[in-house]
Amino acid sequence: MELDSRKLQILRAIVDEYILSASPVGSKSLSQNSKWSSATIRNEMADLETLGYLAQPHTSAGRIPSEKAYRLYVDQMMQHAHLSDDESKLLYGYFREHVHGVDAVLRETAKALSEITHYTAVVMMPDIGVNRLRHLQLIPLTTGKALAVVVTDAGVSQNTVIDVPADIGSEELDRISKSITARFQDCRMSTVSSSLVRELGGELSRRADFVESLLSALCNGQTRDRRMVELSGATNMLEYPEYSDVNKAKTFLATVEQKDDMYRMLKKASNMEFTVTIGSENEQEGFQDCSVVTASYRVNGTPVGSFGVIGPTRMDYARVLSILKNVQNNLSTVLQSFLKEE
Amino acid sequence: MELDSRKLQILRAIVDEYILSASPVGSKSLSQNSKWSSATIRNEMADLETLGYLAQPHTSAGRIPSEKAYRLYVDQMMQHAHLSDDESKLLYGYFREHVHGVDAVLRETAKALSEITHYTAVVMMPDIGVNRLRHLQLIPLTTGKALAVVVTDAGVSQNTVIDVPADIGSEELDRISKSITARFQDCRMSTVSSSLVRELGGELSRRADFVESLLSALCNGQTRDRRMVELSGATNMLEYPEYSDVNKAKTFLATVEQKDDMYRMLKKASNMEFTVTIGSENEQEGFQDCSVVTASYRVNGTPVGSFGVIGPTRMDYARVLSILKNVQNNLSTVLQSFLKEE
DNA sequence: GATTAGCACTCGAACAAACGGAGTGCTAAA
DNA sequence: TTTAGCACTCCGTTTGTTCGAGTGCTAATC
């Protein structure tokens, strides 16, 4: 059965109202701002309920939208929100001020998102694999240890502490750094593979074992690191009546702090321009009453990561989506500015 | 008026009991495991209340310890807790496994503390000022930008993105790195001051302006960074009845996430071997119902930072203190291992 | 004189009954 | 097809009521 125009209008009104109030919407209050009487609306509501778009917490309560309703709302009914000038200026300000490298920008992005939406924001650090090597520098720490710093066209990766043979000196580390940089410059990080090492002559091949383990550490190093997801505003959720129960809040916070899971979620979403995942569509246990809206970001045209907003299922999808779109633009501009001489 | 032995014993029993149960302690339940009758205990309790060691939530309730009582308890009455072998092995395990640099160790410390105590843990990254420069490396990023990586005898600092004159090339950055490293090797970071730059000849003095701004960026860079405090287990507090109210929880979480404040708190505490700060003795608004217990850690004999546990005022002080002591030992051993060749 | 048994009293937590209101479904009239 | 009207439902809140753990005080006991 198709939804006729009136049903759609009523459903939208219910969703809009519920997003604002978080409490079940009744026919009487709806009929105030509507051309239909409460009785008509009641009848339609009953239909919408049997069709699975509405649910009733208990017999004599109003209706609340089901996930199916949100899905329909997001896919077809939502009006595009328009950010006010103030808001987009505010948003722009976050990116204007803190431009000390990719990491800082993405941290700032998370902060901006959570502060402006009042929901929780997660930002995935760019996937290093698709980026091209600019510079590798090994820095001696102590005997047997060195710090490997990798610069790519997308900025700086986390640096990694690696083991080095005890007999390697500061100068040799320097020479190895230069050789590798020269050899792999502008290669994608994912292709910086140890298989090529033995082809190289001279010092590098003498240190083949070391260099191999070094390169594999660089490629995999990132996954070991827990800081690949920037989280902000987790406690914003405590504002919402959905989380007035401490246990629910705790479950949510625990979920959102599983950086591995968050990373997997965002990584998956980075292929898509935007995604909206509602309630039980989420894989995470703790997000069954949440929706996640994500957007991807690109560097040099390649999608390298994504960021998103997590809120209650009754989140203001229209507003969140336009904010994400805005941030997406700002972000690609700023990231591009790190690559001027490309 | 001095507290006689019986008053002390009763007070200690009340504190011990309240730490466990979080609910007011009555005379009857106390008299179960005591040589005195409930009436006697009642009389003593009345005295202790007028002396300010106990408080009564309402007329016909038991008594709860005041901050004054906790203070006395911590200073004089507390029995030293003894960690079980299992526990100290568990604790040791945290340090055994993750030794990829100072940062990682301190992150692991925070995690270990929060998981073992079930309270919230904060760890301050070491204060770089007192450490000695080992190595400085400037790595070209894009035209006009470079990454400065500083290695000290305590390990790696955060790296900083800096502006460089547009006409500086990769090789020149390298030479400048080497010059500065040579000149300031083994100087305390706080004394790496730009005043000395002009004394130097050659390339360095030609680039005097740049080098000056570089060095000041290095000394101050750390304070700009928000990651100087590692936080773990903030949501542990939601377990305790003190925080079953979402608003209280929110206030606490907001406070603990003020990394600047946490840093200031820990920095102040790093001069002391241990500190115990109870309830309103805390400066932070949000810690009026909390206690903070800290310990300092040293590198090469110099205290460079501190770490602590934040819990409700009725925290298990004895246990926390022995855990902190244990961690303090582990930590200095591990940090020392980064400085082998000293 | 110190301790304790006994007693009347207090107050909160927990449970139950009563009430009001917002909402519903259904029926019959417009 | 829409809507006014009505009986009904059920939640949230308020109002009692009871129960129990606790208290202070007094008088008896050690």
Characterize the structure shown.
Two copies of one chain form a homodimer. The first copy, chain A, has twelve helices and eleven strands. Chain A starts with a helix and ends in a 5-residue tail after the last helix. Chain A has helices at 5-21, 27-32, 38-50, 67-77, 85-97, 102-117, 170-184, 202-206, 208-224, 246-256, 259-269, 317-337, and strands at residues 54-55, 64-65, 120-124, 133-142, 145-152, 155-156, 160-163, 229-232, 274-278, 290-299, 302-312. In chain A, a hairpin with a 2-residue loop joins strand 4 and strand 5. Chain A has a five-stranded antiparallel β-sheet, sandwiched between helices. In chain A, strands 4, 5, 6 and 7 form a four-stranded antiparallel β-sheet that branches. A two-stranded antiparallel sheet of chain A has the order 1-2. Chain A is 46% helix and 18% strand. With 342 residues, chain A is α+β, with helices and mostly antiparallel strands. The mean pLDDT of chain A is 86. In chain A, helix 1 (5-21) crosses helix 3 (38-50) and helix 6 (102-117) packs antiparallel against helix 12 (317-337). Chain A is elongated, with a radius of gyration of 25 Å. In chain A, 39% of the residues are buried. The interface between A and B is large, with 39 and 39 residues. The structure holds a DNA duplex (30 and 30 nucleotides).
